Amino acid sequence: MGDRKPYPSDVSDEQWEPIGPFLQAWKARRVAVLVSVSGREGDYDLREIVNAIFYQNRTGCQWACLPHDLPPKSATYYFALGRDDGTDQVIHDLLRCQAREKVGRREDPSAVVLDTQSIRAAKHVPAATTGKDAGKKVSGRKRGLAVDALGLVIAVVVTAASVTDNAIGIRLLGRSSNTPRR
């Protein structure tokens, strides 16, 4: 953080402790990919990049409107690589397991709750990604969610609203069973 005053969205020391070393190792593995077009490696601290992402997520500001004391959008972009290679899912699973253990539960849930919800799509959403849920008379998309008994998210699926709940349930169970076991 340096000399800047912290924002309410900044990662606390307690929050950074489990993910910081993991992200440092990820960055070390990706160093060849993370070199910019100009040939420079990232000049920004990973924690500050996470702070910038959280600031944008919390406030909803446009990337170009990030405060000047946070890294710019260009510095945060390579976290898309983490999304694409599944790193964000691994961090999510790690944090969920730790949250479960913190309240005295086993890290892997013994039961999973599945639910779906149909949501109206905005007018500009492509018709190819929407459908009509005949039972609920909703045109749009459907989201499926798998959670544990604590309400912690295990898997999410978003489809056209015309996809049946059974098909979404099968996808959710497939993703739930692919959760890494340690």
Automatic annotation (TrEMBL):
Domain Insertion element IS402-like intervals: 11-86
Organism superkingdom: Bacteria
Short name of one Pfam family: DUF4096
Domain Transposase IS4-like intervals: 108-174
InterPro entries (alphabetical): IS402-like_dom (IPR025161), Transposase_11 (IPR002559)
Matching PANTHER family: PHP DOMAIN PROTEIN (PTHR30007), TRANSPOSASE (PTHR30007:SF0)
Name assigned to this protein: Transposase
Species of provenance: Plantactinospora endophytica
